[in-house]
UniProtKB/TrEMBL annotation:
InterPro entries: Cyclic-di-GMP_PDE-like, EAL_dom, EAL_sf. It comes from Methylobacterium jeotgali. This is Signaling protein. SMART domains: EAL. Pfam families: EAL. SUPFAM superfamilies: EAL domain-like (SSF141868). It comes from the Bacteria. PANTHER family: CYCLIC DI-GMP PHOSPHODIESTERASE PDEF (PTHR33121), OXYGEN SENSOR PROTEIN DOSP (PTHR33121:SF71). Residues 1-234 form the EAL domain.
Length: 236
């Protein structure tokens, strides 16, 4: 099933959207973490039908929220290699009636390990459809800045590993500052992930982040609860 974690505006703390996060409730093992089962789904190829279900389900649920509230969906690099993503996204949007501008696709740098012309073409088509593209876990993967010149990302997500030891750790703070500078120069929206403390929030706000996501605001919640939060746009 999908859970949804609020993403809030940095200044006002109002809900801008939700990230869809996959959950597997195993009959014997309880909740299994996506960090454990996504790699398995990728190895076995199950990620293709599963990924299709995730996009359709996320769009279907988000279409019930007020018009300004967006949904972010995580994509696996395998989905770029073995499926026609623009075709799938177009059909999910049509079926659900969700506006393309309300769908964000979260992509990690690992997609660019094999930056084939086909992958580049898919990202360009998605952009032309007005779907938002977001660069996830920035700085943790096989960073190469060259793809930032070729693909216009709307958003960059600062990984929680850089946020964790703020505001006291110097290297984390320096990296956050560098990412904010880079993203500002490229007109990208900057979201900080894994914000857990008020001190982190203040530090990131001061550095110029636009959006926050983390336990300080809310954990991922079931769809029903997300719908209630979306209608209010405010967190309790
Ligand atoms: P991610 O995309 O970086 O997602 C953020 C993860 O951080 C989520 O873990 C979220 O629950 C967790 N998180 C949010 N706020 C905080 C916080 O304040 N502190 C801490 N410590 N953690 C926080 P989750 O849901 O376990 O997902 C783990 C990873 O699994 C995701 O990392 C993503 O890479 C992958 N994943 C989850 N859902 C999907 C999906 O639908 N499709 C694909 N392809 N991957 C998914
Ligand atoms: Ca993500
Ligand atoms: Ca992330
Ligand atoms: Ca992560």
């Amino acid at each position: 099933m999908l859970y949804f974690q609020p993403i809030v505006t940095a200044k006002e703390g109002r809900i801008r959207g939700f990230e869809a996060l996959l959950r597997w409730r195993h009959p014997a093992r309880g909740f299994v973490s996506p960090a454990d089962f996504i790699p398995l789904a990728e190895e076995t190829g199950v990620i293709i039908p599963l990924g299709e279900w995730i996009i359709r389900e996320a769009c279907r649920i988000a279409a019930t929220w007020p018009g300004e509230v967006s949904v972010a969906v995580n994509l696996s690099p395998i989905q770029f290699r073995h499926s026609d993503l623009p075709l799938l996204v177009r059909s999910a949007l049509r079926e659900s009636g969700l506006a393309a501008t309300r769908l964000e696709l979260e992509i990690t740098e690992s997609v660019f390990l094999e930056a084939t012309p086909a992958i580049h073409a898919m990202l360009t088509t998605l952009r032309e459809m007005r779907v938002r593209l977001s660069l996830d876990d920035f700085g943790t993967g096989y960073s190469s800045l060259s793809y930032l010149r070729r693909i216009a990302f709307d958003k960059i997500k600062i990984d929680q590993s850089f946020v964790r030891d703020l505001p006291h750790e110097r290297s984390g703070a320096a990296i956050v500052r560098a990412i904010v500078d880079l993203a500002t120069g490229l007109d990208m929206t900057i979201t900080a992930e894994g914000v857990e403390t008020e001190a982190q929030r203040l530090c990131l706000l001061h550095q110029g982040c636009h959006e926050f996501q983390g336990y300080l605001f809310s954990k991922p919640v079931p769809a029903l609860e997300a719908g209630i939060l979306a209608a209010k746009r405010d967190l309790p």
